[in-house]
Amino acid sequence: MRTRFKDKRLQRIKEKIDASRRLDAEDGRLLYESNDIVGIGRLADRVRRNRHGKTAYFVYNQHINYTNICINRCRFCAYSRSLGEEGAFVLSAEDVRAALERRRHEPITEIHMVGGLHPSLPFDHYLELLDAIHAIRPDATIKAFTAVEIDYLARLYDHSLEETISRLKTAGLGLIPGGGAEVMSERIHQRLFPRKIGKERWLEVMAALHAAGLKSNATMLYGHIETTEERVAHLLELRQLQDQTGGFSAFIPLAFHSENTELSDIPATTAFEDLKNVAIARLILDNFDHIKAYWVMIGEKLAQTALSFGADDLDGTIMEEKITHMAGARSAKGLSYTKMKELIGAAGYTPVERDAFYQPLDNGY
Ligand code: V47
Ligand code: SF4
User: Fold this and answer.
1) Cα–Cα nearest to 140, from 109, 184, 102, 117
2) What pLDDT does residue 333 have?
3) CATH placement of domain 56-353
């Protein structure tokens, strides 16, 4: 049966997708400007079903934030503090060990650890953090340090990127989270995160990580001052690097939360925008296997709905999320294994617990 769209322009996009032709910047702009959310969702769902059928993934994970001290102080960040400021913290390897011990009875398979750019922690501190995790959770994958942190460690300790990556990998680093590129636009870089690395370096670090055999994720922070064109350009940059390296695993659209930031006058994103960002990512990023609906940022109900708009993954159980909650997120700080399965099942999908590399698990839990 011929699909009828409320926005007739989507028919042209459907024909391109059916003919396995790639969407371009103009298609991306049209999708973002269209308000036919059901039509966009149907397109994304077709692509999603072809790749993943009725499967929807989740992971049993734990978040660790090893410090909130950060020299960058991005304008959209509610989490960071300066050295000596009230509320600033640094976790020692012993603290990390204790945090992991507290959840030792749970079958956690991925540890997600990121932090700010601390001015003076010795390089060994980072290795000790990895060691501590490995000692308590030898079978878990350590997903840690964004491209921003890895660039920083290389520069601060005057090691090459390759050497820095190799030392972290030897110490147990298994996968790289997607943060740090924000929106790859020099205009936004200058206005919102001028001290953080820009597009070229972020892509260079990602390419080096992929060359070293490490997989990574990618993200886009949306819902602040970015334009439609800037969103589309960001997605096309990611698609281009993925064509070259094949090293990206999942893409995660991150909905901006403005509370307690310098941009607190910016309203929260709408459900409409959140779903569109998931669906359009699925359509443009034709070489990414996984699109994650990050329930922490869009709420569990919308993340569940996003499974019908192109997402195939809900991230994980998490339990102690800080970065978004400090910026006003009202979602839970964690979800139980049972709740994860219920959310997915009630949406008509088959819940599949995965490891950090999307290998299905059957741990009988
Ligand atoms: O890079 C910072 C974002 C990112 C805010 O790879 C904010 O599996 C919203 O990258 N409102 C870090 N977002 C988080 C991240 C991530 C999260 C979950 C899974 C994965 C993965 C990666 O958080 C930062 C920045 O883009 N961020 N402040 C804020 N106020
Ligand atoms: Fe630092 Fe990351 Fe926050 Fe920017 S977003 S201030 S780099 S912790």
Assistant:
1) 109
2) 82
3) 3.20.20.70
Q: Which parts of the chain sit beneath pLDDT 70?
A: 1-3, 363-365
Of all protein residues, the one whose alpha carbon is nearest to atom 7 of ligand 2 is: 72
As a whole number of angstroms, the distance between CA 217 and CA 288 comes to 10
Residues 88 and 82 sit within 8 Å (Cβ to Cβ): yes
Angle value at C-alpha 121, between 126 and 102, nearest 5 degrees = 50
- Please tell me the predicted confidence (pLDDT) of residue 3: 65
Nearest to 343 by CA among 324, 308, 329, 365: 308
Q: Can you tell me whether residue 175 is helix, strand or coil?
A: strand
- What DSSP element (H or E) covers 353? strand 350-354
Q: Tell me what pLDDT residue 332 has.
A: 86
Distance CA 130, CA 140 (A): 11
In the chain, the N- to C-terminal Cα span, in Å, equals: 42
Which residues sit opposite 250 in a β-bridge? 290
Atom of ligand 1 nearest to the CA of 219: 10
Nearest CA to ligand 2 atom 4: 74
Ligand 2 neighbour 249 (Cβ under 6 A): no
Rounded to the nearest angstrom, the gap between the alpha carbon of residue 117 and the centroid of all alpha carbons in its chain is 19
Task: Give the pLDDT score at 2.
Answer: 64
Q: Where are the domains of the chain?
A: 56-353
Which two tokens mark 110? 């991925």
Instruction: Name the residue type at position 269.
Output: T
Q: What is the pLDDT of residue 331?
A: 87
- DSSP symbols for 251-284: EEEEE---TTSTTTTSPPPPHHHHHHHHHHHHHH
Q: What is the number of other CB atoms lying within 10 angstroms of the CB of residue 6?
A: 11
- Tokens 């010795």, residue? 122
